[in-house]
Design a protein that fits this description.
With 104 residues, this protein is α/β, with parallel strands linked by helices. It has a single domain, classed as STAS domain (Transcription Regulator spoIIAA), CATH 3.30.750.24. It is 40% helix and 32% strand. The protein is built from 3 helices and 5 strands, in the order βαβαβαββ. Strands 1-2-3-5-4 form a 5-stranded mixed beta sheet. Helix 1 runs parallel beside helix 2. The longest helix is centred in the first third of the chain and has 17 residues.
Amino acid sequence: MANIMLSGDLGIKDAAGLIRKLNEALMLADVTVETRDVRSADSAVAQVLVAAFRSAGMMGRSLCVTLPPEAALSQLLRRLGLVGEGGPLIVAEGRIIGIEEGTV
C-alpha cells in the first residue's frame, strides 16, 4: 500500500503534479491519500481525484482518500455534490473508497 500525504492550499497549479504522483503510485500498489492537512482545494483537485478513482479501477487497484468531515476537501466535495446524498463518490468510515458506476 502506498501512502500520499496532501497538505496546504491545492489548486489547478497542483493538478498536473497530483495526477503524476497518483498514477505513479497506482502503477505500483493500492493507494491511500491522506487529506487532513489540506487547508483549501479547488474543483481541479476534485476532478483529479475522481479521475484517479477511474484509473485505479481500470488498473485493478484500490484507492482510498481520507475525508475528515471538518477538512477543507470534505467541504469542497460536499459543495460540488460529489459526496453526500446522491453524490457519486462512495464514502465509508470517513474515507472515499470508490465511485458509483455510470456516474461523473
